[in-house]
Write a structure and sequence with these properties.
Length: 306
Amino acid sequence: MDRFDAMQVFVRVVEAGSLSAAARAIPMSLTSVSRHVSALEQQFGTRLLRRTTRYTALTDDGRLFYERAKAILADLDEVSAVISESRGEPAGRLRIAAPSLLGRTLIAPLLPRFLAAHPGVSVETILIDRSVNLAEEDVHVAIRVGRVPDSTLIARKLGEVRMVTCAAPSYIERCGAPNSPSELRAHDCLVFSDRPGPVDWRFSHAGVRHSARVTGRLWANSLDVLVVAAREGVGIVRAPSWQVAGLCKRGELTRILMEYEPSAVPVSALYERARRTSLTVRAFLDFVIQSGAIAELANAFGANGS
């Protein structure tokens, strides 16, 4: 069995969290994944993982091997990229992290065309709703929504996003539309949260900040779920402009409290200074910007919110 392939499979198992998750991500049969890990353990004469099909945990030897294998694979990728880029061609592995919803909606649809344009590049996409540590998690480019804190990272602005409040015409006909954030307390709000309970929605009007404590009968940790419910007239939702722009244009949702919408916030790509000369990173960011996907959809209602 090829040692390099086995090393790649082992790293993927650790990062995916289980044999079955790694098999789906590669993709490869579960039997083949297990065979690669077993071959490494036989070669080194030690157990690297305590594992089932649904769960894995590194042994001490496994942790040592994982760190070294990850470094070796990264070095090989870097060498491949350097050789290819010396010929002026983007190449090598590109690991991208993005928020789940934005990644699915805006980044994922661009990847097939990007890969077709750059056959020497392979892309690994991580959709995760937390800030990643680029150095520790071997991420080349991280997409972030919101103000970027001062750091050693380079930030390249891709577009803007604003949060809008809206409801279905059927809900407004049945319950009326609030005229100010304080009136939201009398409405069924669709709450983005990991657990039931009231949350604060923040607004701004004429330079003054407003906060409304809202609640309702539906909570979810997925905005997709809440937007679907809002379209069906269940309640009032607050979502990114690009997620509901099409529904509003078709009349399936109606924007409310427009004069209280907070200012748009940037959508940025972050990368380490050491990668600023990377042709692959630059090619990906140029491709995203030139596609206009984020610039157009993130600012779907226009700079003035209209």
